[in-house]
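User: Okay, second chain of the day. Same drill as before: sequence in, structure tokens out.
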Amino acid sequence: MKSIRSPLELARWLTAADMVALLFSPLTLTAGPIVSYNVAAILMPALAAWTAFVLCRRLTHAIWPSLVGGYLFGFSSYVLAQGGGGHLQLSSVFLLPLVALVDRLLERGVVLTGGATISVAGVDLIELRLNLILAAADAFEPAEKIA
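Assistant: Same drill. Structure tokens below.
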């Protein structure tokens, strides 16, 4: 039996069915596999529609076209046929719009800001602020050469 030595090798072995099973494992353990499958089959088209709506909203900045785009993607004949036909792994397409959204964000760049304060008895001891810049490598302009 071959052992998995790195997270990259693990990622090659995982499929959409494994991810859905992992996400729904608490429900499977408490309510059983049939209930878990039915809940997943109901949620997958809605989740795909929501992620497509988020992408369309980011691209168009308009509600109604984004609602139509999310509906057409999430409740397309493909998603409904695969989900209703027992192929849950094929109807789990909710990550596709998120990949496009992350690609668009990295193309333009995004700054994530966070902070934490450690205090004892109302006295601030340590304050930590973090600014994280996420962007694609080609999003930055090259610096001018100093002669």
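Helices lie at 7-13, 16-23, 25-31, 33-60, 63-74, 77-84, 88-91, 95-108.

User: Thanks, on to the next one.
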